[in-house]
Amino acid sequence: MHKKYRVRPGEKVRLKDWATHDKPLYRSKAHYEELLQQQIREMSELQGRLYADNRYALLLIFQAMDAAGKDGAIKHVMSGVNPQGCQVFSFKHPSAEELDHDFLWRTTRCLPERGRIGIFNRSYYEDVLIVRVHPELLHAQAIPDMSLDDVWRQRYHSISHLETHLHCNGTRIIKFFLHLSKEEQRKRFLSRIERPEKNWKFSLDDIRERGFWKQYMQAYQDCLEATSSDDSPWYVVPADDKENARLIIADIIVQTLRDLDLHYPKVDAAHKRNLAAARRMLLKQ
Fold first, then answer.
1. In which band, very low, low, confident or very high, does the pLDDT at 285 lie, cut at 50, 70 and 90?
2. Is residue 256 predicted with pLDDT exceeding 90?
3. Which residues contact 223 (CB under 8 A, 6 or more apart)?
4. What distances in angstroms separate CA 218 from CA 133, 134, 233, one per listed residue?
5. pLDDT band at 201, cuts 50/70/90?
6. What number is the average pLDDT over the span 56-60?
7. N or C: which end of the chain has fewer CB within 10 A?
């Protein structure tokens, strides 16, 4: 999983060469549920060790076009995680206060503590994706005058340095781009219109943004090329099959946690004597 979907540092990215649909990892709906539950159980056990070990934090970043399944992936893949050790943040349009700070400020405040898993549903990458497609949004940010090329280059630089800093201080970052085809997005938009319980998830803004598909693909390509590293990799996950995408995401998260070699703290001799004394007292009661 890691190698197949991972963007290698310095790799030229052409998203049309990356599949939006791959051979399913599951044979049936029941098999999908079985595989997902296996991954969820292991993830839950690893999360307990992550919390007790208290050396690392894990940050999961989800980016995608509308209707690619970010919300569903977070809901299903993280369903077995202890809420006390997990924080989810969804970043929408920046507030006036956020616009008065640098573009990394609002997300930096939400980074997970050691021992916890943080989830960003969209992230600081919005400022080199949606803002790149709609550069007029830069006016509200009141940044110093510079060319657009310099803006994006400096922001890639800032992001890469931030992620290196976080890695050096124990935060492991996994970045998922849910790669959806334009045709599958069309089908999912129609489903949102035709099913009353999904109407709230759709607006005409979604159609307008769909008109910028080529510009978004270019923005994603440049972003993936500039910011995927050995320490903080991007994974391009085929998203036309929601269930398969969830299995891929869960597998990558579990493998990342395994690689941390997490342990429960060892109890020293003095603590063991205290435990034995406490046990004797409790047995007498």
1. confident
2. yes
3. 125, 128, 129, 156
4. 9, 13, 19
5. confident
6. 98
7. C
What are the structure tokens assigned to 89, written together?
A: 């943040």
**What pLDDT sits at residue 3?**
86
DSSP the chain: -HHHHBPPTT----GGGS-SS---S-SSHHHHHHHHHHHHHHHHHHHHHHHHH-S-EEEEEEEESTTSSHHHHHHHHTTTS-GGGEEEEE--SPPHHHHTS-TTHHHHTTPPPTT-EEEEES-GGGGGTHHHHSGGGHHHHTPPP--HHHHHHHHHHHHHHHHHHHHHTTEEEEEEEEE--HHHHHHHHHHHHHSGGGGGG--HHHHHHHTTHHHHHHHHHHHHHHH--SSS-EEEEE-SSHHHHHHHHHHHHHHHHHHT---PPPP-HHHHHHHHHHHHHHHH-
User: Given a cut of 70, is residue 68 above it in pLDDT?
Assistant: yes
Say if CB 111 and CB 166 are below 8 A apart: yes
Q: Is the pTM of this model over 0.85?
A: yes
CA distance 275 to 234: 46
Go through the chain and tell me how many residues it has: 285
Q: Angle at the Cα of 172 (from 169 to 173), degrees rounded to 5? A: 125
